[in-house]
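Proteins fold reproducibly. Take a sample protein:
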Amino acid sequence: MKQFLSLLGFDPAKHSVKVEMMAGLTTFLTMSYILAVNPLILSDAGMDKGAVFSATVIAAAIATCVMAFYAKLPFALASGMGINAFFAYTLVIVMGYSWQQALAAVFVEGVVFILLTVFKVREAIVNAIPLNLRYSISVGIGLFIAFIGLKNGGIVVASDATMTALGAWTPTTLVAAGGILLGAILLSLHVKGALFYTIIIMTLVGIPFGVTQVPEGFTILSMPQSIEPVAFHIDFSRFISFDVEYYIVVATLLFMDLFDTIGTLIGAATGAEMVDKNTGKIPALNRALMADAVGTTVGALCGTSTVTTYVESTTGILEGGRTGLTALTTALLFFVALFFSPVFLMIPAAATTSALFLVGVMMLRAIIHIDFIGFSEAMPCFVTMLMMPFTASISEGIVLGMLSYVIVYVCTGRYRELSATVYILSAFFVLKYIAPLI
C-alpha cells in the first residue's frame, strides 16, 4: 500500500489518507456540474447527449489519473467551461463547421500542446500575450458563459427592437432565476458542491411544473451509455485543405487552454502554498501541463471538447489535498458517475443556468488585476471583454483585442515595447480577415 501511495506523491509522515480522499470528494462535488452542463451544450452542436456524457466522464477520469500519477498533484481536469461553449456556439453554430471538424481542431490542439510541453516553449507563447489581455480573456469568457446561461433559461430573449430583452416569466425562467439565487446563497455560505446541489434541487423543483421531463421507465442507475456515436468521428478535411480560418480556430483553442490551465495551476498552487518561495515556480508544472494536453487529445478521440484543469480544484486543496491521491479519488468518482447517466441527462437547460451564470461570476474575479488607468491598456481589454458576448465568439474577442492593442501601441510610438512574437501573432490574426477577401 505504501508503495502504491508513493506513486501519488503521498508521504505518510506529511499526509493523511482520509484528508486526501475527502479533498477529492470535495473537488468532485464542486466540479460535477460539468456532467450535466457539457452534454447539454455539445448537444446543441448536434452531438448525441448520452454519448457526450460518457465521453465527458471518461476524458475527465483519464486526464485526472494522469495528473495523479504523472504530476502527483491534487488537481482535477474535465471539459472546460467556456471552451465547450466556443466549440458548440462559435465553431459549429456560428462558423458552420461540423462537430466532427470541431473535434479535429480539439485533437490537433491537444497534439500541439503535447509538443509545446515536451519542448518547453509554452512560456514564450503565454508571455507573448500582454498580461492585461490575458486577464480580460478570462473576464470576457465569463460574460459570454453567463449570457449563454441566461439565454438557455429564457431569462434573456431576442428582440427586434433592442436586440435582446428580458423574457417572460414562465415556469422555465422561474426555475432558472431561482437556481441563480439559490446557487449564490449556497456559495456565499461556503457550501461544498453548491453548484451541483443547486442543479439537482432545481431539476427536482422543475418536475411538477413540467420543466423537467422524466422519461418513461426512469431508473437512477444504468449501464454506461456507449460513446460510439461521437468517439473517433474526427474530420481532418479542413485541416488538410489549408483553411487559414481553421488554423486560427486551432490557435485560439490552444491559447484558451494555455491561459486557463496555467492561470488555474498558478492560482491553486499559490493558495496551497505549493509555489517555491525562492523561484516562484510550481513543482511539476510541466507534468501538470502534460496531463492537460493528454486529456484534451484523449477527450477529442472520445468525443468531447477541450479538457483543462479546473479552478474548482482549489476547493479540495482548501480541504487539505496536497498529493495525487486527491486527484485519484476525484477520477474514481468520475468513473462511478458513468452509472448515473439517467440522472444527469434528465437535467433541463433551465436547471444549469445557475452553473453557467455563477461560473461567469467567478471568472470576473480576474478584472481586479487589469490596469484600467492607462487608456492604451484599458481600451484593448475592454474590446476583448465586450466583443466575446456581443459577437457570440470568444475567438473574435481575442483577435480584436490583440489587434487593437498592437495598433494603439504602434500608433502612439510604443512599438518597441512589443515583442517580435506579438507582431507575428498579430500578422497571423490579420490573415483571419484578409483570407476571405483573397
Q: What stands out?
A: Residues 2-437 form one domain. The chain has 20 helices and four strands.
